[in-house]
Amino acid sequence: MALKMVKGSIDRMFDKNLQDLVRGIRNHKEDEAKYISQCIDEIKQELKQDNIAVKANAVCKLTYLQMLGYDISWAAFNIIEVMSASKFTFKRIGYLAASQCFHEGTDVIMLTTNQIRKDLSSPNQYDTGVALTGLSCFVTPDLARDLANDIMTLMSHTKPYIRKKAVLIMYKVFLKYPESLRPAFPRLKEKLEDPDPGVQSAAVNVICELARRNPKNYLSLAPLFFKLMTSSTNNWVLIKIIKLFGALTPLEPRLGKKLIEPLTNLIHSASIQLCVQKLRILIEDSDQNLKYLGLLAMSKILKTHPKSVQSHKDLILQCLDDKDESIRLRALDLLYGMVSKKNLMEIVKKLMIHVDKAEGTTYRDELLTKIIDICSQSNYQYITNFEWYISILVELTRLEGTRHGHLIAAQMLDVAIRVKAIRKFAVSQMAMLLDNAHLIASNTQRNGICEVLYAAAWICGEFSEHLEEPNQTLEAMLRPKVTTLPGHIQAVYVQNMVKLYASILQQKEQAGEKESSQEITQLMIDRLPQFVQSADLEVQERASCILQLIKYIQKLQAKEVPVAEEVIALFAGELNPVAPKAQKKVPVPEGLDLDAWINEPPSDSESEDEKPKTIFHDEEQRHSRPRQPEMDEEELARRREARKQEQANNPFYIKSSPSPQKRYQDTPGVEHIPVVQIDLSVPLKVPGMPMSDQYVKLEEERRHKQKLEKDKKKKKQKKEKKGKHHRHNSLHTESDEDIAPAQHVDIITEEMPENALPSDEDDKDPNDPYKALDIDLDKPLADSEKLPVQKHRNTENLKSPDTEVPLVEKKSKKPKKKEKKHKEREREKEKKKDKERKVDEEEKKKSSKHKKKKHKKEKEEKSKEKKKSKKKHHHSEEEPVESVQNGTLDDEPLPVRNCPRQEMLELTYDIQGNLQNDSQVTVSVIFENKSTSFVKSMELNVLDSLNTKMIRPEGSSVHDGIPVPFQLPPGISNEAQFVFTLQSIVMAQKLKGTLSFIVKNDEGSTHEKLDFKLHFSCASYLITTPCYSDAFAKLLESGDLHMNSIKVDGISISFQHLLAKICFHHHFSVVERVDSCASMYSRSIQGHHVCLLVKKGENSVSVDGKCNEPTLLSNLLDEMKETLSMC
Amino acid sequence: SFTGLANQTFCTVLLYKNSPSLKTRESEDIQQQIIRETFHLVSKRDENVCNFLEGGLLIGGSDNKLIYRHYATLYFVFCVDSSESELGILDLIQVFVETLDKCFENVCELDLIFHVDKVHNILAEMVMGGMVLETNMNEIVTQIDAQNKLEKSETFIFQSPRQDR
Fold it and tell me: Measured between CB atoms, does A105 come within 8 Å of chain B?
């Protein structure tokens, strides 16, 4: 051994250590990759050795290589080996490597659970510390669940060094395992008042992180934090607490008032105005850091007090010229909140200048998004002239290499759809864009911007009636160059070309120009094939479809049939904007259960195999009808009418407004579209594009005119009502409201369904990892909310010496002793109780028959009383005939199966499947002598059915009984077993039987007979079989199971109780339980799998079952329904 | 958030990461991309501009920002989200550098290059799982010294024959 060690350390002398590796890499600058791959080979050799020191050294080097960007995940197992080294030196290397390269997808991570648990409870505080640090980097939901309890214990460790780490890591645990938040929270709260400042700061840190996401749950902590804020001297803690109060104050207005005083003490001034003034000084400072922070603070104030910041617009605009990009970005952010109707054009103009001279795409893209954000904010609130906005958008398309083409496109679409008055102008601009598409799409670097062509094509197609030169636009759309555009844009081109074509066709036909309409058709037929050949499936499909359509039109045109009306009808109806949340807001009508099956669900893949023919058959039928070729005109018209009718009746279909064009013509000012300037002297400017600047001038003039007019009016008014409104008029200033928009603009609001439910949860992202931590922390802890504690699997007997249980108890007692807190003690108690309960349950499951019977008897006692009253009049005459009647009386369903019983003798039976033999069950009968007489010579006989037969000793006939091998003195009970054979087990059965016996007392002996019935329920053919969840899942997936379900209402007992009932009465075992949902499994003696999904609702329970024998399943479920309905 | 250290020749010295986006299967590639982008962003900034930087796409969007300090040939870069105070992090970098100075006795770039593991260990005492753990320099140094002592007591069996500084 010693030799081996020496050998190991000699080996090590020749190995490279980390320093050698670093030096080597620095010396091999020119062939670094080669050198490193050579090193990795060496490391692989080292990892193969037994010596842990060599391995640790190798892992240490790997960590460095990982930093350089080399994948080391292949060594994950070796890292775990090093982590489990006994020496701290190696352990630390292992954990460091793990924290750098492990992630949730690392599969060996689950092997670490026990190692980490061991390290957490290590007597060496640095082992614990290093484990906590490492765990904080790679904790997974599984690790969090398994280790939450251990970490919580560490929160009360004697060493503050461990305490603070344990407290801090709890945040990570909460994120991965939200269920732990409530049980751990009381202790976390305690840590806020920890004597050690480090622990305190960690606790504040964690709670601030939690509260930042879900502040409302932490309002109750406000007084505690208030105390901390006034008492703490730690700046870190103070900063965190103030941040926390920032999140809390909006929720609790009184808090703000309370905070003013301490906050004033802290920052000397709480007044926003003063604050902003101070910030201005900061921003004007030459120190760039102060400037940045000043702007940052300003933007925070802007959110709550926009007015006070707006007065500093000059300063912010000045910051836009700063040479520092970070500062410019901050200033941009501020601008967003500063715009008004009055200054929007001015600000945007300034921004446009910046766009032109900005270098670096990041900043320019940022500018672009900001311009769009600023203009479109709160439903275009600040835009007075949409022509201006459209020209801004068109100007933005000149931007080189932007990634935000789709943003511009979305804006164009939105404005064109929602602002009807602007459509004509928008269409003319878009037509221009299409005409100049080569400028936009030519440069491959600019491909982001070609998204605008998507919008342009759609707008031109959809609103083609506004086009001045539709032919030219169509021509532009059919250019061969278009085929170089991305597929989705081409698809839109193809679709909208037809719209355009349709409207041209209509124009020509109305004008009677047959030839030119045929020409245009020919043009389409000539050019469309280039799209048919497209590699993009969407384009190809649309193009070939449309090509056929147009060829057909051509045929009709040749016959001189007017077709325009028909073609245009393809695109009849107007599109209305629908709010993005509209679908979600449609209220669910009463009585509609969205979760209920509409049809019987297909029983998985099996049915797919079975029924493919019928499915296809159906579909073929469906297809064949609409494919009827060459519909005649009448049919078409009739259908169109029907469709219109249907649309009119359908509340969800967007109806076309009666005459959009008419309304459009009413709007004033649109006719005066400014003459488009063509500025050929300026390069790079798309010819024919308008300059947005001119609008600024125009707007100013317009406003001036308006103002003059208004003043004139007012003067008139003044003259009329002299003196009366004098004061009012003299105060006139131009406010936002006074600026009338240039066009009459009606912005169509997005449609929402009627009686949509208002909700504020719309904006929450369902994937937000912090949402899971939105947990009410003020509710008292429930029993069920316990962190999982590691426990022994095979608790055979509560009394048997168990190694694990006392150990855990010892561990958990530690803090109790130390802190002596009442709360703590209670929790321990609960924990213990919980454990006992669990043991109890387990025992129940594996129960010896003994216990079951006890249970039964208890119940029987209860039912006995009932029966007594029923049978009273029979008591005196104990004749065999009567007892047969007794038996029939007992036909009533009873919760517990017990044989009919005479006053003196009681039978209880239990039926159990036989694991060894798939067609046998064992019936155990307990005979109890309740009389004062001696009972002997008992003989049990059963009337066999075709299916079920009692096994009798060889040679005896079917009519012979089986002697019970014991006698019963008074008050004694004993058990005998009888074996039955079965053919089929899918149905429940009842067998009649008779017990004959001799009663012997002082008066002599009498021969007695007792009739009974044995009820073989389907559940008695089931054998409680444990099943692992993955096997269970596989079983469900296998798809050869039939499905059935029941629902029982009016259930008040707890879910746990309910599951216990099902386990007990129906021989199921729980596979998995999540909240009020559990999957259960059992197996019949003939090997049928029975899977259940039990769900508990408010006070109902639904049971979905799957089994490979449908009859068995339905019978089982019926039995279950009976059991449950008695709950 | 992550912490990075880089010298002027764009040789990363240290990267400590704790961000879900970094912890994926392709993490090494993304990690290198982030280092490159961060270095690119930071290194081209003038001396007299501020120490805060935002807008890097890779670092996780608008909630995150880079806060860096430039010491001689080294950049110390922290990437933090909005729950951290900007000035606080600047201060933290200062504490980090001072701690390094104490632990290495007049720290220089080569110390950090050759003893990445030690730098990691020091950082682990200050930041844990992406959250600030300790800001008191004396406390940090005490713990580091104690751990080094422990390490020494264990290493009597194998002693690295060469000590590089």
Answer: yes
Q: How far apart are the first and last CA of chain A?
A: 68
CB atoms inside a 10 Å sphere around CB A475: 15
Euclidean distance between CA atoms A321 and A316, whole angstroms: 9
Residues 285-324 of A with CB under 8 A from B: 288-289, 291-293, 296, 323-324
- Helix residue ranges, H only, A436-486: 437-441, 451-462, 470-477
What's the mean pLDDT in A499-525? 85
Structure confidence at residue A999 (pLDDT):
82
Compute CA A597 distance to the chain's CA centroid, rounded to the nearest angstrom: 23
Minimal C-alpha gap between B24 and chain A (Å): 6
Superfamily of domain A897-1016 in CATH is Gamma-adaptin ear (GAE) domain (2.60.40.1230)
Confidence tier at A1028 by pLDDT (50, 70, 90):
confident
The whole-model pTM stands at 0.47
The mean pLDDT of A576-602, rounded to a whole number, is: 76
Option in B24, B50, B155 nearest A288 (CB): B50
DSSP letter string, A560-596: T---HHHHHHTT-S----B-TTHHHHSPPPTT--TTS
- Hey, where are the domains in chain A? 6-101, 141-254+262-268, 489-569, 897-1016, 1021-1126
Note whether B154 contacts A87, CB cutoff 8 Å: yes
CB-CB under 8 Å, A168 with B28 = no
Distance from CA of B64 to the nearest CA of A (A): 13
CB contact under 8 A, A326 and B49: yes
Cα(A880)–Cα(A886) distance, rounded to whole angstroms?
A: 10
Q: Are A951 and A979 in contact (CB under 8 A)?
A: yes
Question: Under an 8 A CB cutoff, do A126 and B85 touch?
Answer: no
Contact B158/A9, CB-based, under 8 Å? yes
Strands of chain B (E only): list them.
2-7, 12-17, 52-53, 65-71, 74-80, 127-128, 131-132
Q: What is the mean pLDDT of chain A?
A: 73
CATH domain A489-569 topology: Methane Monooxygenase Hydroxylase; Chain G, domain 1 (1.20.58)
Q: How many residues belong to chain A?
A: 1127
Q: Which of B23, B50, B151 sits opposite A327 (nearest CB)?
A: B50
Give A327's contacts in chain B (Cβ within 8 Å): 49-50
- The yes-or-no verdict on residue A245 having pLDDT over 60 is yes
Mutate to test the interface with B, among A89, A210, A299 (most CBs of B within 10 A): A89
Element (H, E) at B131: strand B131-132
pLDDT more than 90, % of chain A: 3
What pLDDT, on a 0 to 100 scale, did the predictor assign at position B162?
Answer: 43
Tokens, residue A1035: 């079983």
**From A9, A103, A769, residue closest to B27, measured CB to CB:** A103
The average pLDDT across A55-80 equals 87
* pLDDT for res B27: 64
Provide the CATH topology of domain A1021-1126: TATA-Binding Protein (3.30.310)
**Closest approach of B74 to chain A, Cα-based (Å):** 17
Shortest CA distance from B149: residue in chain A: A89
Q: What is the CATH number of domain B2-159?
A: 3.30.450.60
- Contact with chain B for residue A205, Cβ under 8 A: yes
Judged by CB atoms closer than 8 Å, whether chains meet at A325 and B55 is answered as yes
Residues in B touching A5 (Cβ below 8 Å): 157
CB-CB contact of B126 with B138 (8 Å): no
Q: How many other C-beta atoms are found inside a 10 Å radius of the C-beta of residue A405?
A: 23
Which of A110-119, A277-286, A904-913, A1003-1012 ranks highest by mean pLDDT? A110-119
- Going by pLDDT thresholds of 50, 70 and 90, the confidence category of residue B31 is confident
Indicate the class that CATH gives domain A141-254+262-268: mainly alpha
For chain B, the domains span 2-159
